[in-house]
Design goal:
Elements (H helix, E strand, L loop, with lengths): L4 H16 L4 H15 L19 H15 L6 H9 L4 H12 L6 H14 L1 E3 L9 H24 L14 E3 L16 E3 L2 E3 L1 H9 L3 H5 L4 H19 L19 H15 L4 H13 L3 H21 L6 H14 L19 H9 L21 H15 L3 H14 L5 H9 L16 H15 L5 H16 L3 H7 L10
Antiparallel strand pairs: 1-4, 2-3
Length: 505
């Protein structure tokens, strides 16, 4: 097959089309025979092919599509479900994930089959290292891996045949284990009490790809709801224990360890939590899923809160027909935790810079400027800001406490520019004035484009509401005066404009 791989992919793809689109009887007979031959075709190991190799023309990708189509339509053969499970266990991820895609599409037809298929994918993410693994040749390692995958498929078939509609999902094994201290090998341990990493490996990237394909809305509306929430709760507990175990001493508390290879897993888990938030009472969601994340050190907490808040704001604010107060309550909890971040603590040693990538992403989300040009959205991202008043308390809390940080001010200015006249002039003026200390705006704004942008907004509000109410005119003039102190020439010119003529501070 390798010599004519693309040609074989074309043949398999043509056969899959005949099955998926219910072709003529003679074509369907040929298609089934062709796909069966590719399904049962043995593949010799190749040194140039890895588990993550992108072989988009692989014939078994099209076999998976055809099998799923047959199951969805009710025209499957007796062995098709096991065959699709076998493709989930294929060593190439591109084939395995396509099979999981097909299984996910069968949820409405057979949720039990789909649930067990997801569990098979998670079971394949479990891997245990052996001490002599490095001594084995490639053929021996291949046999062990094949046995592991075959055992996983057998367990999935047993679950499929069982009376339990939704068996508990596989969970990662503990990341840490405790042993008696060996004085001659202390470097193996992460703690004076003998804790060290276990030999259990969770293939987190693959597991996150499996969970990404779960139809959360359909699951949460089905009898699998409780099992799904229990699984997510266990995933959160394991993740936090891996990154910040309870046994770690206070001296080392919060030092993130072995978290770099779990970044995709943490972000996907955060997005999954957002998907179930709208289906649970706010108090229950916070107690079972969100509370433990809020209690983590800054880096760990922000890494999961940023994707959680982004997905929650997109589904519950930007796209929702009506804004649910529960969503605002959860975003408020996230904001309160973000404001506890050390980067928001004012001191002479803090120059207003933000660390990492997650906190800046979270700020954009909480100011509703993370998504632009989404014409299909209901509000904000599509340029319609008439509902801004519903989220204004969130915006005002963030800017009032952290607007001295240039990045926060920059995103706030961006919000005001996009909202235009939908952002109340009085509220805008009050937030800018709240940044002043001893009559001066934050020194960190100097040398940035923020002063000029604020001056443009002042002018826009003045032109929009001309003639200005006296109290609003005084506030805007006070802002211009402070902007002049930051070196903004435009503000000096605006002070002499007709809108502020005769206004005294």
């Amino acid at each position: 097959m390798p010599d004519h791989a693309v040609a074989h992919g074309c043949i398999a793809g043509t056969a899959a089309v005949a099955i998926c689109f219910d072709g003529l009887a003679e074509h369907t007979t040929w298609a089934r025979a062709t796909l069966d031959s590719y399904l049962n075709q043995a593949e010799a190991p190749r040194d140039d092919v890895m588990a993550r190799s992108r072989i988009s023309w692989h014939p078994k990708i099209f076999v998976a599509r055809a099998l799923a189509a047959g199951i969805r339509s009710g025209r499957e053969n007796a062995a098709d479900r096991e065959a699709l499970y076998r493709l989930v266990a294929h060593p190439l991820e591109v084939v395995s994930l396509m099979a999981i895609d097909g299984i996910a599409s069968c949820w409405e037809r057979d949720s039990h089959f789909a649930w067990c298929g997801f569990n098979l994918g998670l079971r394949l993410a479990q891997y245990r290292r052996t001490l002599d693994e490095h001594r084995l040749d490639s053929a021996a390692r291949g046999r062990i891996e094949e046995e592991r995958r075959t055992a996983a498929v057998s367990e999935a078939m047993r679950e499929l045949a069982s009376s339990s509609s939704f068996p508990s999902w596989v969970q990662p094994m503990p990341s840490w284990t405790q042993e008696a201290l060996d004085a001659g090998d202390l470097h193996r341990y992460d703690d004076e009490e003998g804790w060290h990493r276990s030999d259990e490996i969770w293939l987190s990237d693959f597991a996150s790809a499996v969970l990404q394909r779960v139809p959360t809305e359909a699951v949460m509306r089905s009898a699998a709801r409780d099992r799904y929430v229990q699984a997510l709760e266990a995933f959160v507990d394991w993740t936090l224990d891996t990154l910040n175990p309870a046994w770690r001493s206070e001296r080392r508390q919060g030092r993130e360890r072995d978290g770099a290879d779990q970044r995709q897993w943490q972000r996907q888990l955060g997005r999954l939590l957002a998907g179930v938030a709208v289906y649970l009472p706010e108090a229950e969601f916070r107690d079972r899923l969100l509370g433990a994340i809020l209690d983590q050190p800054d880096e760990i907490s922000m890494r999961m809160l940023a994707p959680f808040a982004g997905a929650l704001a997109a589904s519950g604010i930007l796209d929702a027909l009506q804004i649910d107060p529960r969503i605002l309550g959860l975003l408020t909890a996230v904001l309160d935790r973000a404001l506890e971040h050390r980067d928001f603590r004012r001191s002479r040693y803090n120059d207003g810079r933000l660390s990492g990538f997650d906190l800046p992403e979270l700020i954009k989300t909480l100011l509703f400027v993370a998504v632009e040009g989404a014409n299909g959205a209901t509000r904000f991202a599509n340029g319609r800001w008439s509902d801004l008043s519903q989220v204004l308390p969130l915006v005002e809390t963030l800017v009032r406490q952290a607007g001295w940080i240039p990045y926060v001010a920059d995103q706030f200015v961006k919000l005001c520019e996009q909202a235009g006249g939908d952002y109340p002039a009085e509220a805008f003026a009050d937030l800018i004035l709240a940044q002043m200390i001893d009559g001066r705006l934050p020194a960190g704004w100097k040398g940035t484009h923020i002063p000029a942008a604020v001056a443009r907004l002042v002018q826009a509000h003045a032109d929009r509401q001309h003639p200005l109410p006296t109290e609003l005119a005084r506030k805007l003039l006070q802002i211009l005066d402070a902007l002049v102190d930051l070196g903004d020439r435009r503000s000096a010119a605006l002070q002499q404009s007709e809108s502020f003529r005769g206004v005294r501070l």
